[in-house]
TrEMBL record:
It comes from the Eukaryota. It comes from Prorocentrum cordatum. This is Uncharacterized protein. Keywords: Signal. Residues 1-27 form the signal peptide.
Length: 222
């Protein structure tokens, strides 16, 4: 074989020498040399998955802390013009029938100004919310994970939650008697102590809560 010009080496030998001198950074490590997860890491991942909520598990202590923050205010109704007040009016100013169907109030809001949601409308919405929280009847399933088989109507802890979530019609609120994983809880109370919670509720923290997801990754969406 003719040598490469200027090298004096046969072409095949020059090519082999060039490959040998290539930087080692281009060579992938052998499979046995790649790092592997430790047994403890794997066991931890499996344990988190088995619990359903994973790294976002909500403990009884978490719920108590959430409640303590809920009752850190001076009570009363939510302020006019707040997102929380309008959501409560939209979803609790109306009538429930025996089949669990809610018919929203369709008249004119009292204001002021007339036609706008005012303090009187908010008071009616709050009264409807209190009634439904005490009944704990028209609620939706909660619980960890995305598997519907893991979700329950009532987790037996005695709490009732008001939580927000995105719906086809925009932001909406619903009641839960199990931890509302992946939702944005606003209020929580013992079903036997709903009035006590409203006497001390802190409405000032609701704007933060409406953007805070419980038991799941943070989601900011309005």
């Amino acid at each position: 074989m003719a040598p490469l010009r200027g090298t004096g080496l046969p072409a095949c030998l020059a090519l082999a020498l060039g490959l040998y001198l290539l930087p080692s950074a281009f060579v992938a490590p052998a499979p046995s040399a790649r790092p592997t997860a430790s047994g403890a890491t794997v066991r931890g991942q499996v344990a988190r998955a088995a619990r359903g909520g994973g790294e976002y598990d909500v403990s009884d202590a978490d719920i108590q802390a959430f409640y303590d923050e809920t009752i850190s205010g001076s009570g009363g109704d939510p302020p006019k013009g707040s997102i929380t007040a309008e959501l409560i009016v939209k979803h609790f100013h109306g009538v429930w029938d025996d089949k669990g169907t809610f018919t929203r109030y369709s008249g004119q809001w009292k204001g002021p100004p007339p036609g706008g949601i005012g303090k009187r409308d908010i008071a009616v919405g709050i009264a409807g919310l209190k009634e439904q929280m005490k009944l704990g009847k028209h609620v939706v399933k909660g619980g960890p994970g995305n598997d519907e088989t893991q979700k329950v109507i009532d987790d037996g802890k005695g709490w009732v939650w008001l939580a927000a979530d995105m719906s086809p019609g925009g932001l909406a609120v619903q009641l839960y008697t199990s931890v509302p994983y992946g939702k944005r809880p606003l209020l929580v109370a013992k079903r036997s102590e709903v009035d006590t919670m409203f006497e001390k509720v802190n409405w000032g923290i609701m704007d933060k809560r409406i953007d805070t997801t419980m038991g799941g990754p943070q989601v900011i969406q309005r």
